[in-house]
Amino acid sequence: MQLHISPSLRHVTLLPGKGLREFIKVKVVSRKLSYRMLFYALLFFTFLLRFVFVLTAVDSIDGENKCSTIGCLGKKLRPKILARSLESSVPEVMYGILDQPLGKDELEGRSDIPQTLKEFMTEMKEGGYDAKAFAIKLREMVSLMEQRTRIAKIQEYLYRHIASSSIPKELHCLHLRLANEHASNAAARLQLPPAELVPALVDNSYFHFVLASDNVIAAYVVATSLVRNSLRPQKVVLHIITDKKTYYPMQAWFSLHPLSPAVIEVKALHHFDWFSKGKVPVLEAMEKDQQVRSQFRGGSSSIVANTGEKPNVIAAKLQALSPKYNSVMNHIRIHLPELFPSLDKIVFLDDDIVVQTDLSPLWDIDMDGKVNGAVETCTGEDKFVMSKRLKSYLNFSHPLISKKFDPNECAWAYGMNIFDLEAWRNTNISLTYHYWVEQNIKSDLSLWQLGTLPPGLIAFHGHVHNIDPFWHMLGLGYQENTSLAEAKSAGVVHFNGRAKPWLHIALPQLRSLWTKYIDFSDNIIRSCHIRESS
Ligand SMILES: *[C@@H]1O[C@H](CO)[C@@H](O)[C@H](O)[C@H]1NC(C)=O
Ligand SMILES: *[C@@H]1O[C@H](CO)[C@@H](O)[C@H](O)[C@H]1NC(C)=O
Ligand SMILES: *[C@@H]1O[C@H](CO)[C@@H](O)[C@H](O)[C@H]1NC(C)=O
Q1: The domain containing residue 522 runs over which residues?
Q2: What is the dihedral of CA 443, 444, 447, 452, to 10 degrees?
Q3: What are the TM regions of this chain, as residue ranges (predicted)?
């Protein structure tokens, strides 16, 4: 006997031993239906009725009459199980017992609960139980199983999170190798850009791009793809902002791998004048945010202890505690006007994108006085990525949010944005951003929980100009079946999904869009065993 639960918890498959041709498969459409109820239903049908079931797509459960009790579920399923009556086989007393919630510590330290379906079956055959005892045993076993499944699921979700946010050892090696190069090799310590090109950094006749990243190889792919596809690379200025620990590796890499005639600047945050001038709201906010997060919902142990919640929700809450979502690299874009006081317009790029076309036409887009040129994320083929409205990010049960915003307003994406810094300087966008970050902290993160996009959506509200989706195709790294042809035809592709192209979990067919900008025969790349196929 085997039991299999799909990761989405939407399919439960029960295979009773080899040789038996009977099997049960139930597809649940409603998310409202707990899988504990499914277990019960399945076990009923197996043990009590003993016939062959193939139940698929129990759509009716999702309909108007939602089932909240076992009895109701049994009745709902019955018509599909041949024509036999279920009521006669399942005594009401069992429904009653199975619907009772189990006491908190009822399973604690008990050794008489069957651990597997096989054990349960054996015990039932030998024990001569009546319906009530059967139901009690069943409930205990299923609850025990459910507890174990929960823990395993939470671990699985967290593992996926860790897999996507951690740095693989090859990239770690690269950073160490480059830091070493920086210390020992003068050619890895060049001033970037060289002195004669410094005037270009503040010259508004150039195309200025800004990239904030702590990942050297990712930054390099963005930079190479940008420069190689540019029709006038000599007019391209790329400002790379990084953090203190990545500064030396980043500088070493771009010293040894120049992209001339484009102008590349590498700067750590602490090198910016504005940053060293005392009060920096973004750092203060981050510090407070981190404090609140560590206490959020009583900290990680009480989040896990909340058994009423689905494993993916628990995992999401634990993720909210993760410092990754609070990285200064993510928050810093709200201070672009202060970081680049002499520039009028810039294009801001995330480090998980690849440029596939000349981007200078972005400067010709009439922004209509708006500050942020971005793609909308509520219309498009890909229903998973392109169904984002304000309600997807903000908590509209909260009066502060529902009073001010429309839940159905389309959201937009970070990743490839045109920022008109001149227009921005005439607004209070950065202030608004910090005001709302503060409100969220004060309300114990109940306005939103993850990331820097939600406060961005609020701060840029009314200041966004929609640009053609050609300029920013999102959603790579979410699903296997993103079409390569479609991705190839986009101006910029964004691996905003979990399967980043530099990770082992990258999707092989899409990875080539990224790897084609890396020279795998490069000595440093080779010495860290970074390979074309992962
Ligand atoms: C920005 O905020 C200040 C102070 O709150 C206010 O006086 C000013 O009118 C605001 N400017 C804009 C453009 O909203
Ligand atoms: C949304 O806001 C409501 C009202 O303040 C609050 O009770 C609820 O917990 C919030 N939801 C989340 C997920 O924080
Ligand atoms: C991609 O696959 C998912 C599930 O694997 C499916 O739901 C979706 O419709 C597919 N999308 C396309 C465009 O084929």
Answers
A1: 168-277+328-527
A2: 120
A3: 37-58
Ligand 2 atom nearest to CA at 395: 1
CA distance 280 to 283: 6
- Give the residue, by CA position, lying nearest to ligand 3 atom 11: 481
- 288 C-beta closer than 6 A to ligand 2: no
How far, in Å, from the CA of 481 to the mean position of ligand 3?
6
Ligand in nearest proximity to the CA of 383? 3
Looking at the fold, whether 184 and 140 belong to one and the same domain comes out as: no
Q: Whose CA is nearest to atom 14 of ligand 2?
A: 446
Q: Are 344 and 270 found together in one domain? A: yes
Residues 245, 102 share a domain = no
Is residue 295 classed exposed, middle or buried when 0-12, 13-18 and 19+ CB atoms within 10 A define those classes? exposed
Q: Alpha helix (H) ranges present in 229-342?
A: 244-256, 273-276, 281-295, 300-305, 311-320, 328-331, 336-339
Question: Domain for residue 375, yes or no?
Answer: yes
What does the pLDDT look like over 263-318, one tens digit per residue? 999 999 888 877 766 656 666 766 676 666 666 666 666 666 666 666 666 666 66
Q: Residue 219: what are its φ and ψ, rounded to 5°?
A: -60, -35
Residue 236, domain CATH: 3.90.550.10
Q: What is the pTM of this model?
A: 0.72
Decide whether any atom of ligand 2 lies within 6 Å of the 111 Cβ: no
Query: 3-state SS of the chain: helix, strand, coil percent to 5?
Result: 50, 10, 40
